[in-house]
Amino acid sequence: PIWRTRRPVIVVLHKKSAQIQHHYYRYMVVTPGGSEQETHVLLGQQDHIMQGGTTSNEDLEVSSVMAWEDPYWQQHLHHEPSNASMVSMENSNTQKRYLASLPYRTLDISIAEGKVIVDPDIPQWNGIAMDCWNSGDDASFRSYLIREAINEENRKVNARKGMNIDDSQHDSGTPPVFQTEQRIFFVCYHLPVVVVKDESSGEWKASWSESLMAKTEGSKVVSTYNAHWVGTVSPHPPIQSQEDKEQVTSLLAEMNCIPLYLDGNLIDSHYNGFCKQVLWPAFHNIDLLDLAKEKLVGWDQSKLESWWQAYQQVNRLFAQVMIELVRINDIIWVHDYHLSLLPQFLQELEMAKAGRVMTRKVFFLHIPFPTSQIFRELECGEAILQGILHANVVGFHAFDHARHFLNAAKRILGLDYESMVGGLIGVHFQGKTVLVTMSNVSIEPRMADAVLTLPSVDAGYNQLKSKHGSRMIIGGLDIGQRLSGVSLKLLAFERLLHDYSSWQSRVVMVQRVLLPNSRQSDEANTVRELRCIVKRIQDSFGPQVIEYMEMAGSSMPVDQRLALWKASDVLMLTPIREGLNHWPMEYIYTRKEPSPPGVVITSEFSAVSSILNGALRVNPFDVQMTVTTMDKALSMSMPEREGRRYRDIDFVSTCPSAKWTQNVLRDLRESVIRQPTEKSSSSSTPGTPIPGRKELIDSTAAYLGRESSLAFTEINASDVKKAFDASSRRVLIFDFNGTIVIKEPPGKYLKREILGTSGNKPPPEVIEALTDLCADPKNTVYVVSGDSSENVVNAIGHIPGLGLAASNGGHFSPPAPAGARRTWQTFDLGVDWDAVKRVALPVLSKYTARSNGSFVKLTHLSIGWSYYSCDPEWGSLQASHLVLELENELRAFDVRFVTLKGVVEIVPRKLNKGLLVKKVLRENDLIHDEGTDFILCCGDDISDEKMFTSVFSYIAEMGDEQNAKPIPPVVGSDPSIQDIPMSTPHIRDPMYCYTVAVGKKPSHASSWVNDAQAVAELLVILSKGEQETLASQSWGHTSPSSLFE
User: Fold this and answer.
1) Cα separation of 392 and 389, whole Å?
2) How far apart are the C-alpha atoms of 1040 and 378, rounded to whole Å?
3) CA atoms within 13 Å, Cβ hemisphere of 109
């Protein structure tokens, strides 16, 4: 049989320098309601034809796609899944990738003539070119075969360059290679180095510190990447002269370290002030009200503003240094809370320098993240969240910390997140998906082995053992600040000696307290309390039961630390709040075989408690439970000790910082693969990155994605104005919220982002432009909204000659002259709306009663339940249950449920904005004999997509009333135009049609603008032609300004 499309295919001619536009297309077999048996009859048992996809028709119903063309399927088997396996993977990511790479056909169109260029090799039937189903010899496949040959060569080149990572490399933990000589910058406030000056020789010397960020011997990351470190440096003694600075800089350059030298006052305000007195306690879940009440901890409310300014200044200084260093595709890894604004500041500089995002960014937080209730107490909390979210990957050491971050992003910024394939979590932020990952890291086994061979370790061990004789040792090493929980530990030890008197002569606690001097008041208060408790214990039970010592600095020398671990039978750490502490892992490794195993007691509030399976967990505030656990640890049998060590020794021994770095970089690679680049298009397949112009394309999906991206261009206002002036009968249709009304930015409450435009009015220049456009008799102008008619009328109902539509186009008012009373009409969509209300409203009232802040919103053709003022999580939970209950109650009615962000709507199944678009266009042709020759349709969200597709449907139906789809009848319409023809015989040539999406995103529109401000400027140009007033906007980067026909 010979088949033709039911309606013509409409192709938008994009203005390019070339004279020919390539139209790419594929064929599919669709049998609505057909059975699988019918499919096999149709295909003649061709089992290699792909089955099981879906396509959506104009009525929002889904029809089964029974077969796809793939005449070259045998050639694809070496790099595509077999068709047999694809049948069982319907809607899977693998299937999507397969479908995106299916062969395509090509027609060449002459831009100058607006006609298909006839290929003499294509057979004709009654003057019409024909394609043969699944025939690989068809001339229309010629371009595909040429492109596929190029793709094959590019695959070989890319493989040689190391751009593709095979599965074995990926699984083995080898870091991903983005390109040859990939550079990575580790950016941290403190460089992971120790710089000292030899007093005798006067020479500066530098070495790597124990930090996670330090370069480690044998690291695959360092051997694979060109690694650099950027941060401040604190030499000892402090730098006194320019000569010292030059020597230190030169010395660190040999280690690939780039130091920053900050002013002393700036350091004090940034680090000692904002970081240590504001962020550090807040991130550890300390209420700011507690800080304000306890003035001894260093809190000073009056300094907050200057501290915040210093924090921003330091982050900007780091960004300015980085922008001079980075190149395209470099990786920037930002460490910790000192530099949380750096990802955003650096991206802003990249956009200013290159017009695009130049680098891939990781932000990793090494301390806890607070609950949203604590975090929102920070005035700058919103800015910090946004700064962090400009990274591609945000990492944490514990899931609790990641969960708090996700909750803060949702409650403070109103951002959604979702679980993704591979166990990752994605946060949707500014049109991209930021991956949130949780990655654990252990100690450096090589360094520990080297230190254990030092004589000083054995000497320290022997000294502790000889001093305390046969007593069992409970070791402790903590920072002398109250969140370390040392006082709770000592109270538990005191209770142990009191309740279990047998231990008084058999145990000793060796407690070391470090004083880093970063929170002086806190440390002074804590030490004063500890000394009091220690004195009380020694007075009650004797000085031999506890050995207490205070040490200056933030860390104990590693040899002394390992000596303490070797000597301690039990390691006890009881922090109230803590990030990842490696000392328990170091303790386990120090006591590996053949040494006797030890026992770790750790707080359930620490990150390490979720990592170590063999540790005993305690709640430090429950003193009695802690005492019982201490007794259990001291009394534990050797087999149980060995079993607990066995649970953790593998992780502790095999997960050094290099492997942790590889894992995070793998997640970074996932973030790049899972979403298109900034050049992505509406037709790109999820998970298929769109290559840039200079990147080698090696797949059909990538090639078509790039072609579609290049075709989906920012609209050229000058071109639109020329077409507007050249036309005689125009229809202009605009969405309301987010298109001619600028949406409010997200704020601290979800409701600011959701439906934040309700009741707002367009800016004065838009009102004036709409008034001028409506006054021109050549124009028919409509504004379509999902809001109620009352709100739309209040906002723009006073504009004479403006058509209005509410309830997503279901309830509308045709243009009326000045002074005339508006009349409203409604589509009859075959639903008894009063009956729907009687069933739905009792259900909605039940959910409204239990969800504070929710309310029911009624329009002519919709019932909405709004929960955007509720608690976000509770509202989302109730909405999901509401939809299930309504589906059951309303199953007898022809309605559907639209679930938007913060709203559940019940609407007639047939209702969409496209119905009104078709009615307006058809009526315009009926009233005006010459026919429409200019259409402009703008919208910003998913409900506006039906407007775009209906515009093209209207054009396709021109001159073909037999195949045109009828629109529903209208209640309250003018009897004189009740019988609107379904198509018009007037086909204007040329015809100008612009469908415009507000914001670059997947869309059926043919072009896009940045935001509602750009729509406003376009309206001003059309109404007044004042392009010179819009000099700040750059229109049409990719299109020439000459008008084409």
Assistant:
1) 7
2) 49
3) 17
